[in-house]
Write a structure and sequence with these properties.
Shape: globular
CATH topology of the largest domain: Rossmann fold
Oligomer: single chain
CATH architecture of the largest domain: 3-Layer(aba) Sandwich
Strand content: 5-15%
C-alpha cells in the first residue's frame, strides 16, 4: 500500500496536534458578531437545505455567508468573529474546527450530514472524532437516536445538543416539496415513464481514484485506523458489500429492460462515484439512461419506482411517498448500518426486486401499506418528525442563544475591508462538487421564498466565486468599492 498523499499527511499531523491539545481546549463561548458562516462541499446535496438555514438566520438579523468550503475554511482565522457551521464531526472537520476556534475566535456549531441514512449506532459513532465535543459549542441531532449516540459515544453534554431534525428532510415536506414537484413534472413530460436506479458504490467506483486512494481518504477523515483490526474488518466488509452491490445493480438493469420494456431505466450514480464507469457499461443498451444532473429529489419524485442498494435515497423515497425497494445481495455486516434497509422492503436478488416492482406497476399490488405505521414510527424517532415547524427554523432559532449581545441582530454591521494576498485555489474535483452563480442562487432563493411565503425581502450579495452573503436589506454595509473581498493587484 502506498503512503498517504501530502494533503493526507498534513491532516494526520494536525490530528496528532489536535489530540495532544484537547485537554487545554476550553470552548462553549458566545459569538461576538451576528455573522453565520456556512461552508458547503456538495451543491446538489447541501445547497438547498443549508440555504434554508442561511435564509432563516438572515431573517432573524444575522449576516449569513455561505458557499464553497475552500474559501471559507482557508481564511476562517481572519474573518470577523462569528458562528461557523460545520457539516460533520469527523477528523477533517475537527481539524478545521481547531483552526477556527484558535484564540476563541469563532463559535463552532455542526450537523452530521453523513448520519442521515444511518441506523447503526456503532457506524454513527465512527464519524465522531473524540475531540469534537471539546470544540463544538452546539451540535444538531437529527432525532432522539442520534442524540443518544452523540452523548454516549461522542462525549457531548445535554447543553451541547439540540434535537432539531435535518433540513434535508424539510425539503421533502409540504410546502417545500412543491419546488421539486415542478421539476419532476417537467422530467415526466420529457422522459415519460421511468424507474430510477440509484447507485452508491463510492468505494469501489470512487472519484478519489483506485481502492488504495479511497482507503487513504478514509484514513484522512478518521473512518479507518489501519492498525485497528476491527476497523480493518469493517472496511473489508464494506468493500465486499459494494462489489456485490455493483454486480447486483448491473444485473438489475438488464432484468428491468426485459421485464418492463415500456419503462425507461434511469441510472443515477452517487456524487462520490465515477459516472463514466456506468456509462461504459450501458452505452449500447437501448432504454437505459445514465444521468446525474439536477437535484436527486426531483428525479426521485418523477420516477414510478426506486431501486437502490442500501442508499439514503430509499429513506427519502419513503418520506416522500415514492415506492422503493432495497437489494441486499448478501448478508454483509455493512448492510445493517443503513436506515433504508429498515424502512424499505429488502430482497436479496435483482430478479426478486423486478418481480415486486412489476407486480406493483402492472398489477396494482401494494407491498408497502401493511407496514406503513411501523415505518413512520421509526422515521419519526429518527428525524424528530413530531416536532412543530421545520428543522431549518429550529437550527436558526438556536443561534440566538450563541450571541454575546442579542441587540447586535438589530444593528447595522459594516463589513471590514479584506484584501487577499493569494487567490484561493480549488481543485477540479472541488469545483465539480460545488460551483454556483449569483443568478442560480437567487433563483433558488426565489423558489424557496415562493413556497414558504417568506424571505422575499432579503438581500443577496456575491462575495467571491461560489460564495455569497444574505441578510436583511439594511443589515450589511459594504466597503466603499462594494466588494466583500478583493485580490491584491500583484496576486491577480
Amino acid at each position: 500500500m502506498s503512503d498517504p498523499p501530502p494533503w493526507a499527511r498534513r491532516y494526520l499531523l494536525l490530528k496528532y496536534r489536535t489530540t495532544q491539545r484537547a485537554s487545554a481546549i476550553v470552548k462553549h463561548m458566545k459569538a461576538k458578531n451576528p455573522v453565520l458562516y456556512v461552508h458547503m462541499e456538495s451543491r446538489e446535496r447541501e445547497l438547498d437545505a443549508k440555504l434554508l438555514v442561511a435564509l432563516a438566520a438572515a431573517e432573524l438579523g444575522f449576516i449569513s455567508i455561505f458557499g464553497q468550503s475552500t474559501f471559507l475554511l482557508q481564511y476562517a482565522k481572519w474573518f470577523p468573529e462569528g458562528i461557523y457551521f460545520f457539516k460533520g464531526l469527523n477528523l477533517v472537520e475537527t481539524n478545521v474546527m481547531q483552526i477556527c476556534s484558535d484564540n476563541q475566535r469563532h463559535t463552532i456549531i455542526a450537523i452530521d450530514e453523513e448520519s442521515l441514512g444511518v441506523a447503526d449506532s456503532v457506524y454513527l459513532a465512527k464519524g465522531i472524532h473524540p475531540v469534537a465535543s471539546k470544540l463544538c459549542d452546539l451540535v444538531f441531532a437529527q432525532g432522539e437516536a442520534h442524540r443518544e449516540v452523540l452523548k454516549r459515544s461522542g462525549g457531548f453534554s445535554d447543553d451541547q445538543i439540540a434535537v432539531t431534525g435535518n433540513p434535508r428532510i424539510d425539503l421533502l415536506r409540504p410546502p417545500l416539496n412543491a419546488k421539486f414537484e415542478r421539476e419532476a413534472k417537467a422530467l415526466r413530460k420529457r422522459l415519460g415513464k421511468f424507474v430510477l436506479v440509484n447507485t452508491n458504490t463510492g468505494a469501489v467506483n470512487s472519484t478519489f481514484g483506485d481502492l488504495e486512494q479511497f482507503k487513504a481518504a478514509c484514513k484522512t477523515v478518521g473512518w479507518l485506523d489501519p492498525h485497528d483490526p476491527d476497523d480493518q474488518a469493517d472496511f473489508d466488509a464494506w468493500i465486499t458489500f459494494e462489489k456485490a452491490n455493483m454486480a447486483a445493480t448491473e444485473a438489475l438493469v438488464y432484468e428491468l429492460r426485459r421485464a418492463l420494456p415500456d419503462y425507461l431505466v434511469l441510472l443515477r450514480p452517487h456524487p462520490s462515484e465515477r459516472k463514466e464507469t456506468w456509462e461504459d457499461k450501458f452505452s449500447s443498451i437501448t432504454g437505459v439512461l445514465v444521468e446525474r444532473s439536477g437535484n436527486h429529489i426531483a428525479w426521485m419524485l418523477a420516477s414510478q419506482f426506486v431501486f437502490h442498494t442500501s442508499c439514503t435515497t430509499g429513506v427519502e423515497a419513503e418520506l416522500a411517498g415514492v415506492p422503493a425497494i432495497s437489494i441486499k445481495p448478501h448478508d454483509a455486516t455493512a448492510a445493517h448500518w443503513f436506515l433504508s434497509n429498515q424502512v424499505n422492503p429488502v430482497v436479496s436478488k435483482p430478479s426478486e426486486a423486478v418481480m415486486l416492482a412489476k407486480s406493483f406497476l402492472v398489477n396494482g399490488c401494494d407491498p408497502f401499506s401493511a407496514t406503513a405505521d411501523a415505518r413512520r414510527a421509526l422515521l419519526a424517532r429518527q428525524f424528530a418528525l413530531g416536532e412543530p415547524g421545520f428543522a431549518f427554523d429550529r437550527i436558526a432559532q438556536s443561534l440566538l442563544n450563541l450571541l454575546d449581545d442579542p441587540k447586535n441582530l438589530s444593528d447595522t454591521y459594516r463589513w471590514p475591508e479584506y484584501t487577499l494576498r493569494h487567490m484561493p485555489k480549488r481543485s477540479t474535483r472541488q469545483m465539480e462538487k460545488f460551483s454556483a452563480t449569483m443568478e442560480e442562487v437567487q433563483a433558488r432563493i426565489n423558489t424557496l421564498a415562493d413556497c414558504l411565503g417568506r424571505f422575499h425581502d432579503l438581500r443577496l450579495v456575491e462575495a467571491w466565486d461560489s460564495l455569497f452573503a444574505v441578510s436583511r436589506p439594511d443589515k450589511l454595509t459594504l466597503p466603499d468599492d462594494g466588494q466583500m473581498f478583493r485580490l491584491k493587484p500583484s496576486a491577480a
